[in-house]
Amino acid sequence: MKYARIISGLAARLGLSIEKAMEIFYGSATFQLIEKGIADLHARSEIYLVDELILELSAAKNQSNACR
Description:
globular, DUF3791 domain-containing protein
């Protein structure tokens, strides 16, 4: 299943446990877009989607730091 490969790729890239990667993935805007079929994200490669998740996390972190 594609979700499993995205989660394991995210865990590997960020050095996270599978459980933490699952939490991040299922709570992400990227997951919501995939589920809704927006922008054909479901057709993108797992590597592309892992990169998108990392960009999303980075943007959220930067926004959180800007609010301080």
